[in-house]
Succinate dehydrogenase
Amino acid sequence: MIKAKTLGDARAQAQSNSELNWWIFMRISGLILMFLVLGHVYMTFVQVSESDATYDAVVSKLANPAWKFYDWLILVLALLHGMNGARYSIEDYIRSRPNRFWVKGVFYSVVAVIMALGTVGLFSIH
Ligand code: HEM
């Protein structure tokens, strides 16, 4: 795992291109997610009251492709950001290679299923 504060340090430490790309992705996705999620919570909690978040209201909002894309971006970025964060922890704490392999395999599969269900659910709304 890269432990760096600047891009230059991260480049020097990176064992591979993909490790460096994940390091960059974590910084960018974290920043974007802050705005997307704050906006999401604001719109679903503050702007409307809880009782307004009905099935019909959500479906009519998600009929707009721009909102579909907004929600989908949170779905994908949050899942990948969380998945890679958990991968760092798995690599730190699970020292045995075969165990690491199985834990990662199960974990990535769960993430893939959630991403597929979330995407199909979102884009099946018309
Ligand atoms: C506690 C506050 C929250 C409330 C009340 C809430 C409520 C909702 C509602 C009503 C929807 C349906 C669609 C829409 O209105 O956009 C939704 C979708 C979604 N929310 Fe939240 N949300 C909350 C927090 C979060 C957080 C913190 C995240 C991410 C870290 C998140 C991620 C998502 C995603 C990814 C979808 C789209 C899921 C899909 O259809 O595939 N939400 N949320």
About this structure: Residues 37, 40-41, 44-45, 53, 58, 61-62, 71, 74-75, 78, 118, 121-122 surround protoporphyrin IX containing FE (CB under 6 Å).
